[in-house]
Target: 3110_t:CDS:1
Amino acid sequence: MSEVEESSKTQFSTSIPTQNIEQQPPQSQQKNQSSSQKPKRRANVIGAGVSGLTTALLLQRNGYQTTILAEFFPGDLSIRYGSPWAGADWRSNVEMDDAQLQKFEAYSFKTLWKLSNVAPDAGIKIVTIYDYVDKKPKLRRDQPWFKKIVPNFKVLRKPHLPANCEFGVSYTTVSLNVPKYLRWLLNQFKESGGQTVNKRLAHIKEAFGPDIDVVVNCSGVSARTLGGVEDEAVYPTRGQTVVVWAPHVKSIVTKRSTVAGNYDITYLIPRDDGQVILGGTFQPNDYNSEPDEKVAREIIQKCDELCPELTHGKGIRSLEITSHNVGLRPSRKGGIRIETEYRKRDDGSEILVCHNYGHHSYGYTSSWGVSCEAFNLIETAFAKRQEFEVAFTNDNSKTDQMVEKSESKL
Ligand SMILES: Cc1cc2nc3c(=O)[nH]c(=O)nc-3n(C[C@H](O)[C@H](O)[C@H](O)COP(=O)(O)OP(=O)(O)OC[C@H]3O[C@@H](n4cnc5c(N)ncnc54)[C@H](O)[C@@H]3O)c2cc1C
Model:
């Protein structure tokens, strides 16, 4: 099984709200805001990658006074900060039987599509994608789960396929200029009253302030090393890319191959500013932050073969290279960790923690859906706690029953 397939399994519990969450709060929160006497809950979000920023924005816009605690913010570059290195496009690799992740990716697609219309400064561009594979897949990939979600879906057959490809699809999707998009998310968050603290946490409990109601852990690949989390299922998948100036490339082109059991992908993703990101590699457990010159040459060569308009037949030396990049995808055996638990502060009191990490190669593709899930899990946990407290006050005989019920569900 390819690594992409392996990481696309998820652990989910609640459904996402159907409202347009970036413009209108979910119903539960509308109720919350209407009772002006009720103090706002306070949230600390660890991480300012696409997962942390999206979750923090949702919380802040929906009644939580939210602070992002992070070592790196938009504008920073580090091998421990995956989001700035992404392509990024919305392209799904979810298996036909993973209904939850499909739901989250569908929701993200709709939100990103809408944002591309209403937020011109967010760096989201509508583009056509040509997605090819070398061997016709055994599973019926000509009927992918998302064919009804994306506009203009078509199956491509010979002669509309490049050399050495047996299958392909095309459709309309979105590409994101990630540095711009991350800055936009952060600005939206701050304009909504969100706070930021620039610090590196050695242990998750550093986020458990006495006045904090919930901590959301969006620490990406660092979930493996962050004290109190230390999730050994998390590992990096290195991706090397080359960014070039090529405003004449208007479409995303990708080719996936399976070479001796290894997953290999060649891709060109145009951004809204004339740059095109060329990729790439999938190297599990490789932390090397230095771009490899030979690999960079191979990437450019493969991209030129796949999309000759890249160099207009002038040869790869004619390309204007903007940067050589390396990023780590936050991969996780078992897929995304999206769940809540109660942890103890040093004084013995309890605090709600929601984990949201392990997004591998689909952090943008799933971002809005998974962040909504985090929001719903948090709201559900508070609602259950409230139910328990009411029952405890009203009828002590129900206490044992309620404890069992809450513990089994959290
Ligand atoms: C080459 C490449 C191409 C990609 N292409 C795509 C694509 O086309 N589409 C797509 O959907 N995805 C793509 N991805 C994947 C995507 O980039 C990731 O899934 C996503 O960025 C993960 O975001 P994150 O917020 O979970 O983690 P990160 O972006 O890594 O953010 C982690 C945050 O947590 C903070 N943090 C961690 N530990 C601590 C600590 N101890 N104290 C304080 N702060 C801490 C960090 O400072 C950072 O702010 C690509 C990735 C790569 C590398």
Q: What stands out?
A: Residues 3-389 form a domain with the D-Amino Acid Oxidase; Chain A, domain 2 fold (CATH 3.30.9.10).
